Amino acid sequence: MHIGFDISQTGSGKAGCGYFAHALIKAMLELAPEHRYSLFPSFGNFYFDAKMPIGNPYSGRDLHYGPRHLTGDAASLFWNGNDVEASLGTPDIIHANNFWCPTQLTSSRLIYTFYDMGFAVNPAWTTEANRVGCFDGVFRSAIAADWVVAISEASKSHYLNVFPHFPEDRIRVIYPCSRFADSSTEGKRPKALVNVPAGGYWLNVGTIEPRKNQYRLIEAYGRYLALGGAPMPLVLAGGKGWLMDDFQKHLSELGVETQIVMTGYVSDDELIWLYRNCYANLYPSLFEGFGLPVLEGMQFGAPTLTSNSTSIPEVAGDAAILIAPEDTEYWAQIMLRLSVNKQERDQLSVNALKQAGKFDWKQSAAALLQLYGEALASPKRRMAE
User: Which CDD domains does the record match to this protein (predicted)?
Assistant: First the structure.
């Protein structure tokens, strides 16, 4: 089988989408080296990283890179051309992973990874440019994709609610997994926590942006302190995202500025240390296609308080305390309870490790390879409908 796979977002600055594609292609190369793999450093006109594939090379017995472009305009011109399929060698499979979706494929089976449509649920969660680009890709997938890979049952349901014409039997749930291969790694303490004791801080991981709900988390934390909660600092581990220019002002107005540690971007080793040594991992996100920080924290035994919304209960199972993301008072009350109940905290840690063991990249890659085989054995969707 000739597999064409989009790796455009797997470079050094990768986020959730990039980690998904990166881990899947690594696992497939290990599980099924007999196939021919064409990896695409650029894919479409929505995302472009000029350093790919130099920034993140892969190795395999029969692995080749697709066209490399020096500019985003050159990549856009290529990928929107009518002869793109032939120029790529007409792969059996072309798998799109960065929201953009081609519509001109006539022979290759087009697989499209669908992450989520939070951008369509609430316009305030992202910028107009990002919202338009993402929706354009998802809409094109509903027209042109032969199969859709959804990263959770919640994402699958949302996709079918928005695009009810898409055949349900051609959408398959394949879960992401943790990026960390070794659960025994101790990690490295971030410099920002040099004076914070292990086990003596609350943790929140993720880009600081409206959908991740740090505004309400800060309010809940302030309420927790007002109720007499132990003055453990709240560590926010993640870069600053869009539409959050007044976040620092919000901290000051709530009077918690001195209790907040903002690390900015952290390395994988630093993130492992943060997960392993936090008192609890707090993830109050309003909307998730999956919720990777929940799973990754659990992998290192982090007791977890998280949202009861969208896909997160699928990830957390019964191993976390699930809370409505808008209910700041209840978040504060649960934090207060957990801060004085070490037995409950320790049991959450045990439950977390058990739940994390249910997710494995090799299982996900095997499921994807099986889907590729089914897609190749089936007619293209336009022929079947």
Answer: GT4_MtfB-like
